[in-house]
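User: For a reading group we're discussing how well predicted structures match intuition. Take Carbohydrate ABC transporter permease. Before you show the prediction, I'll give you the sequence so everyone sees exactly what went in.
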Amino acid sequence: MWAWALLVPSLLLVIALIAYPLATGISLSLHSVVLNRPGLGRPFVGLENYARLLTDQTVRTALVNTVIYVVAGVVSQMLVGLGAAVLLNRASRLTWVARTAVMLPWFMPPVVAAYMWAFMLDPRFGILTRFAGLLGVDTGGQGVFADPTLALWGVLLVELWRSYPFFTLFFLAGLQSIPEELRDATAVDGASRWQHFRHVTMPLLRPVILVASLLEGIRLANSPTLILLLTNGGPGDATQVMSLYAFQQAYLKFDFGYASSIAVAMLVLIIGFSIVYIRTAGGGRD
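Assistant: Thanks. Here is the predicted 3D structure of Carbohydrate ABC transporter permease, as structure tokens, for the group to look at:
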């Protein structure tokens, strides 16, 4: 009984911050809740909101964009983060300066990062736009974020710059935990640096890759902050993703019932993907 008594504060915190909001969201998805039409009340509609998801063309577009956004975002950040971690994994008096500089984008608020990049990629006076023009790259008169074919990749570029330090931090910690004796042993056996990296370092980094990629994938799927600030889902639905669409349904159209059904559907998809990913990557083996 004493152990359960000690767990009570933690259980109350879990109920208040996780269980209650989750139950409320599921309950809202089964009702019609339109805040700007209070006369309609909160009638129970069952699975009507979920049936609406299946016929909503915007949901289909947003789902495809979400998959592209998450996969491309995680892969690009992982590759750049791994490269940065390998370069920073050396003993030097000035290494801490380079490590601090690499981490600076991660510390920057999303609002600042979004408007800074929007200014640099502005079609009229953006410095990156002008530099691309000098190299013969034409981004079009409307700019990157107004071009339906480039807008999503432009947001991914900003996301890459801001979020790759997350992977760098994970990979750097993983690299520093690998004993130096392993490098000496493989060198004695005649292995090159690439062979050591491929057959020793990468397998040892596998748990780090699994955790970091899963956490970042979940964050990208649930956090449309940069998309909201840079394009607001446009032009058209070129950068529309599921989390942003749920936000727009709730706080622009005040349709909290339909927004909750989108959120619950995302929750189910993310849980299912996480289970499959962990088992496929070997995290579920005994």
